[in-house]
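Example with several molecule types.
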Amino acid sequence: MLAAGWAAAPGTEDATPVEPGGEATPAPSATPEATTDPAAGGETFTGVEVTNLRGAFQVRITVADGAVTAVTITQAGTEEPNSIDINSTAVPALEEAILEAQTWDVDYVSGASYTSAGVTESARDAFSQAGLD
Amino acid sequence: MESLTLTAMTMEWTLQAPAGDRDELEAAAAHVQSDLDWIEDVFSTFREDSWISRISRREARVADAPPVVATVLELCEQFHARTDGAFDARTPGGGIDPTGIVKTWALERVRWRWGLDNSLWGCGGDAIASGSAGAEPFRIGIDDPRAPRQGRLIDAVALTGHLNAIATSGLAEHAGHIWNPATGEAADAYDQVSVMGGDLIAADAWATAIVAGGPDTAKAAIEDGFEVLTVKVVDGGLAAQRSPCWPTLRQS
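Resulting structure tokens for the full complex:
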């Protein structure tokens, strides 16, 4: 949820997420909706609204001295928005996914082992084993 | 839903069109088939007389070949840089084998032929969507790497919005070892990686790169604006990780 705003539409300048170690990378200098927020001690940047199956998402961050000091989820899909003090929260780039068995009705299956590269290499190996290369 | 399948480059290319006109689709299919056959003629490493094969044997130059050859080789170089070396199309002999990228490049290149606002167009496990399947977005199942191509799914996603393309790569599709460019050791962090985004070719390059480069490359892909699902088979079970905005249809 926290990272919903980071997945905004291509072409939008968004601040990069805080690394798990706690160091922040500076926000880009030009952002469509940057404002100065003296009360928060820095500039605020509001990400574009992202809409997907779960609703509308929007995130606003406050940046001071090149560090992200506050993150506010202004729209959180169907859930209640909440603010997060990111100094005490790491934003993981990868989260554990629980893949228990479930059935889906799908239009197409995405998997590996379909490519001609595999066919090519397999064929080459077969030829090689047969002494035909 | 109209469905149409072509065969080219030893693979099946599938179109699904919710509001397609059968006659128009079949007319377009003839052109698409012709395009794909030509691409195979140019890029097939199976064919001795393809431009790629002749260039590999130094019997022809990239400059003499159809411009698409330079375009695809340049894409390989760009992705090599963009993935910090994790995407590597180089062969041991010092040449470039663009085979891994040609499929998604071809998918994108011929797509306009269908002329559809709503379509799902895919080949070999990679797919790109326009619009939706009627009232619902197009739904893509993620193959179970423990039993590939047997209809067993471990996840499902919707192809929609800025995440309208998906590519999946895996260890199984490569012969021999893939080497992690950072560690120099055999890559084994993941058995299967799926990447979603707004750019099918880039998603394909990232999926291939993440298989080689592991978690650091997965994080780089996320920072580049893509969503990622990584899967490792462990003792017959699955250890999986996903990016925070991976658009799973799983009911949690």
